[in-house]
Amino acid sequence: MVFLTPLSFGLAHAHHAWDTYNRYGRTRQAALKAVLGSTDLFGFHAAYLFLRTGSLLPAFSAHAFCNIMGFPEVAYEIRTWPHHKYLIILLYLLGIVGYVYTLPRWTETPGSIFWPSA
């Protein structure tokens, strides 16, 4: 289930891949960027949320949040504030590590049939 969700999520968002392919010049590199982009990673995340909680609500909520916020533009931020390059990278890494660290506790659901708590 975890490995099929990114595939179905990717197929549902194929228009994003087509847009990326066209935007980056219809090259092999653009095709790889379109296929291996954030859509498949988010599919894994949505499957994880569903299996941990046993509910589609967290996956839908995360999808809505990501649609509103958009994908982080680290390169743009570094270009805009080059003297804060290492601070920007550090804060992004701390945010990722903090999210990964707290995610198991946030998603632990008593009585989940998919991922029982220990």
Characterise this structure:
The protein is mainly alpha-helical and 118 residues long. Helices cover 73% and strands 0% of the residues. It contains seven helices and no strands. The chain has helices spanning 4-12, 14-23, 28-35, 38-53, 57-69, 74-80, 85-107. Helix 1 (4-12) crosses helix 4 (38-53). It is flat. The mean pLDDT is 80.
Key attributes of the depicted protein:
mainly alpha
What is the string of SSEs from the N terminus onward? HHHHHHH
Overall spatial form: flat
Mean pLDDT: 80
Largest sheet, described in full?
A: none
Head-to-tail CA distance between termini:
21 Å
Helical content stands at over 70%
Provide the low-confidence segments as ranges: none
The portion of residues forming beta strands comes to under 5%
SSE class: mainly alpha
Number of strands: 0
User: Roughly how many Å is the radius of gyration?
Assistant: 17 Å
Number of helices: 7
Subcellular location: Endoplasmic reticulum membrane
GO molecular function: metalloendopeptidase activity
Enzyme class: hydrolase
Protein name: intramembrane prenyl-peptidase Rce1
Provide the fold topology.
Layout: H1 4-12, H2 14-23, H3 28-35, H4 38-53, H5 57-69, H6 74-80, H7 85-107
Helix pairs in contact: 1-4, 2-3, 4-5, 6-7
Concise account of the structure shown:
This protein has 118 residues and is mainly α. It is built from seven helices and no strands.
